[in-house]
C-alpha cells in the first residue's frame, strides 16, 4: 500500500495503471477485437478474435472459394497450408522449420503421436506412462493407443514420472501445463529422463504454446501435439498440430495413413508410401476455412518474442494473486496454482465453495473466466491482450462477490 493511501483498492488501481503504462506489449491489444467492458480471462480455453481474421475469412470464402473455385488448391496455397502454417507455429514452440504440421484435432494428433511413438520405441518395451492428472482426452486416447500397440497404460504423477521411467517404458505422455491447476511441468528434465530411459516422449502443449517458451528442439523432445484455439487464438475448433522431431521423421509410421500424407497423393496408387518430413503426419483433406483463419490469427505474433510474453504472463499472474489477497477476505479462496514461477503456467486457479455460482456471478459482472468441476475457478492470462487493470478489476469483482 502507498504511504498516502489507506484504501488497498486505490493503491492497486494506481499500481495497475503504472504497470500498464510501462508494459511494452500493451499495444498488442489493438491486434484483437474484444468487446468493451469485458475482462477476458478465458484465453486458456478460447483465445480472443484477432483483428484481421474476419476480413481474411471473408476473402477465403468469397474470392478463394467463390471465384477461384478448385484452382485455389494451387493458386491460394490451400494444399500446402498444413506445412506452411506449421512453420508459422514452429518458432512459438522452439522448433526449426519442417517439423510441425497442422490439421485435425488435438485428440487425433495424440492418437497419431502415441501409436507412432510406440512404433518408434525399441521392441519389447511394454509400458505407456501417462500423466495421471491429464486432460481426459489424453487418457482416453492413450488407453486405446496402448491396446492397439500392445502396451499397458501406467498412470504417473508428473512429479514422480522420472523415477517411473525404466527399460520397460516405451512411451511417456505428459502435459506441459496442467489444465486444472495451471502447474507447469519440467519439460527439459522430464524429456532428458525419458531419453535416458530410452523411451519416446510425447508432450501435450495445449496450455503452454503461446504462453511460455517450450524449446522442443533445444530439449530434444520426440513428439508433441497442441491445440491452436487457446493462446494461439486460432478460433473455435481451429485445427491442432503435430510436431515430429526431424530425427524421427523417416521412421515415423502414422497409424492414420491417409492420402494427404502420401508421398505422391495424386498418383492414386493402391499402396501407401509415406511422404517425407512432417507431411506424413497429415491424414485427409485439410479444413481450409478454419486453417486459413488460424493462419491469419497467427499474424498477431508478428515481431513478438515468446520470452517477453512469458515475462508479462508471470507479472500478470503475480499481480492478480496479490490483488486477490488484498480484495478477497482471507480463507475464502485458495490458490491451487503454484506460487513459484518455475512451476506456474499462464493461469491462476482458485478453489472456493460454490465455484460454479461464483463464476456465473463474475461473468454476469463482465469478468469472464471459467469453472472446472468440482470447485475450481480458472483465470487464464493471455499477455497479448490482457492488461494489469484487467487483473485488478477481476480480483476486485471477486472480492465484491464474497463481500
Ligand atoms: C491439455 C488438453 N489436451 C487436449 C485437449 C483436447 O483437444 P481437442 O478437443 O482439440 O481434441 C484439450 C482441450 O481443451 C486440452 O486442454
Describe the protein:
With 403 residues, the protein is an alpha/beta fold. Residues 1-5 have low confidence and may be disordered. It starts with 7 loop residues before the first helix and ends with a helix. The protein has helices at 8-22, 53-65, 72-75, 81-89, 106-120, 136-149, 161-164, 187-196, 288-297, 306-327, 355-364, 388-402, and strands at 32-33, 39-40, 49-50, 100-102, 127-131, 152-156, 169-175, 200-204, 223-226, 241-244, 333-335, 347-352, 367-368, 370-372, 376-380. A seven-stranded mixed β-sheet has the order 4-10-9-8-7-5-6, with helices on both faces. It has a four-stranded antiparallel β-sheet with strand order 11-12-15-14, covered by helices on one side. The longest helix is centred in the last third of the chain and has 22 residues, at 306-327. Bound molecules: pyridoxal-5'-phosphate (PLP). Pyridoxal-5'-phosphate (PLP) is lined by residues 105-107, 135, 137-138, 175, 179, 204, 206-207, 227, 240.
Amino acid at each position: 500500500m502507498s504511504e498516502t493511501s489507506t484504501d488497498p483498492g486505490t493503491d492497486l488501481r494506481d499500481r495497475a495503471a503504472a504497470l500498464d503504462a510501462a508494459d511494452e506489449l500493451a499495444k498488442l491489444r489493438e491486434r484483437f477485437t474484444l468487446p468493451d467492458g469485458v475482462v477476458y480471462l478465458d484465453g486458456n480455453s478460447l483465445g480472443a478474435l484477432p483483428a484481421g481474421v474476419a476480413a481474411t475469412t471473408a476473402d477465403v470464402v468469397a474470392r478463394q472459394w467463390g471465384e477461384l473455385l478448385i484452382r485455389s488448391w494451387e493458386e491460394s496455397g490451400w494444399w500446402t497450408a498444413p506445412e506452411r502454417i506449421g512453420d508459422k507455429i514452429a518458432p512459438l514452440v522452439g522448433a526449426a522449420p519442417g517439423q510441425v504440421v497442422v490439421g485435425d484435432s488435438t485428440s487425433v494428433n495424440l492418437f497419431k503421436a502415441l501409436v507412432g511413438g510406440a512404433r518408434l520405441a525399441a521392441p519389447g518395451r511394454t509400458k505407456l506412462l501417462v500423466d495421471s492428472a491429464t486432460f481426459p482426452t489424453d487418457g482416453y486416447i492413450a488407453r486405446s493407443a496402448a491396446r492397439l500397440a500392445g502396451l499397458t497404460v501406467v498412470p504417473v504423477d508428473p512429479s514422480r514420472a522420472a523415477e517411473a521411467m525404466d527399460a520397460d517404458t516405451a512411451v511417456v505422455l505428459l502435459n506441459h501445463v496442467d489444465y486444472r491447476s495451471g502447474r507447469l511441468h519440467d519439460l527439459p528434465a522430464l524429456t532428458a529422463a525419458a531419453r535416458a530411459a530410452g523411451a519416446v516422449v510425447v508432450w501435450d502443449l495445449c496450455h503452454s504454446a503461446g504462453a511460455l517458451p517450450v524449446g522442443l528442439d533445444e530439449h530434444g523432445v520426440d513428439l508433441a501435439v497442441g491445440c491452436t484455439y487457446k493462446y494461439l487464438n486460432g478460433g473455435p475448433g481451429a485445427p491442432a498440430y503435430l510436431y515430429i522431431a526431424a530425427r524421427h521423421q523417416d521412421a515415423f509410421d502414422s497409424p492414420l495413413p491417409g492420402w494427404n500424407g502420401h508421398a505422391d497423393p495424386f498418383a492414386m496408387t493402391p499402396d501407401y508410401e509415406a511422404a517425407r518430413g512432417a507431411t506424413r503426419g497429415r491424414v485427409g483433406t485439410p479444413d481450409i476455412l478454419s486453417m486459413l483463419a488460424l493462419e491469419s490469427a497467427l499474424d498477431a505474433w508478428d515481431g513478438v518474442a515468446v520470452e517477453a510474453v512469458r515475462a508479462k504472463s508471470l507479472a500478470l499472474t503475480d499481480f492478480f494473486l496479490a490483488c486477490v489477497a488484498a480484495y478477497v477476505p482471507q480463507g475464502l479462496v485458495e490458490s491451487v496454482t503454484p506460487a513459484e514461477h518455475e512451476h506456474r503456467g499462464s493461469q491462476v486457479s482458485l478453489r472456493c465453495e460454490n465455484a460454479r455460482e461464483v463464476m456465473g456471478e463474475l461473468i454476469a459482472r463482465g469478468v469472464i473466466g471459467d469453472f472446472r468441476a468440482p470447485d475450481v475457478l480458472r483465470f487464464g492470462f493471455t499477455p497479448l491482450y490482457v492488461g494489469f487493470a484487467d487483473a485488478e478489476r477481476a480480483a476486485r469483482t471477486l472480492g465484491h462477490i464474497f463481500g
